[in-house]
Amino acid sequence: MKKIVLLFSLFGLLSLSALDMEIDVGTGIQYTGADGNLIYAKDIWEGSSAKIDHENSTNFYIWTDISIDQDYWPKMRLEYSHIKTEGNSGIDIQSGKDEINFIIDEVEKKLNEVDLSLKGIVLDSYLSQSTYEGYLYYEYFEETSYPSIGVGLGVKMFDFTYRATIIDGLEFTDNGDETVPLLFFKSRYELDKEDDDVQLSFEASGKVYLFGDSTMYDYLVKTDFIMKYNETTNLGLEVGYKAVVYDIKGSDIDTVGGNMDNSGIYIGLVGHFR
To answer: Which segments of 117-232 are extended strands (E)?
Structure first.
């Protein structure tokens, strides 16, 4: 996916020198937590689960929209976000006899008294997720008094690292990455198209990710307020709410299944360049 992002960026730079373009960018912070349940499907943790309850934390995002003033050319959008959360996880170890004996041996090296069941314990845990997205889309009704409608196709790459520390040197952990296709939907309404100096807009969008038997989607609602800075640049603010929902089947990733919900408000700076 990183190669795809670089390819899109190269395409944009080459087009910038040859075509009239408009570029929108946004960057800011999102206040996001993590709730869900992981079910392991590999090695000594097979059949085990972790119920995640992480408090909201401040995270980073950036996006860019590129449109070319040519008939039939789609718009292009690139997005990156990083979510890092910490909190508690309720761990339920379900392993075979050999694996349980291995865990007990490791624990006995650290503790005098051991909970042999290792079920229902609550541990400190950590989750890190990075998301890269790139997609092409067409937008309709932009020059009318109606809300514009956008539809498109693209790809998403996400990678994650999860860790719950049982004792020092022994962790309930997993990491991985996937690249999946996505369908994109968007509706945007600009409150006053006649005033070029001030623009208040409202937007709602959603994505559905096509990934085997799993269900993955996200949605956001936002408003942005943009003011004219000079003849080629407008600057402003955006504020909104975004939610990302995963319901992963273990057969699709081969290591872990379960569900996850990352949601929260975000605020950032936006710019429009032409």
So the answer is: 119-140, 148-167, 170-190, 198-211, 214-228
Using CA atoms, how far apart are residues 53 and 185, in angstroms rounded to an integer?
Answer: 30
> Mind listing the domains of the chain with CATH numbers?
2-273 (2.40.128.100)
Question: Among 26, 80, 31, 67, which residue's Cα sits nearest to residue 201?
Answer: 26
How far apart (Å, rounded) are the C-alpha atoms in residues 154 and 134? 6
pLDDT of residue 107: 57
Strand-pairing partners, residue 78, are: 64, 134
238 within 8 A of 223, measured Cβ to Cβ: yes
pLDDT block averages, 10 residues each, the chain of length 274:
50 54 91 84 69 88 88 89 87 60 56 48 82 93 86 91 73 78 94 73 93 85 90 90 84 69 92 85
Pairing of strands 21-40, 49-68: antiparallel
Q: What is the pLDDT of residue 175?
A: 75
Residues in the chain: 274
Say if residue 265 is exposed, middle or buried (CB neighbours under 10 Å; 0-12, 13-18, 19+). Answer: middle
Instruction: Name the token pair of 203.
Output: 């937007």
Predicted model pTM: 0.79
User: Could you tell me which of 202, 203, 206 has the C-alpha nearest to residue 219?
Assistant: 206
Token pair 């292009």 is at which residue? Answer: 76
Please tell me the predicted confidence (pLDDT) of residue 162.
Answer: 84
8 A C-beta contact, residue 122 and residue 90: yes
3-state secondary structure of 139: strand
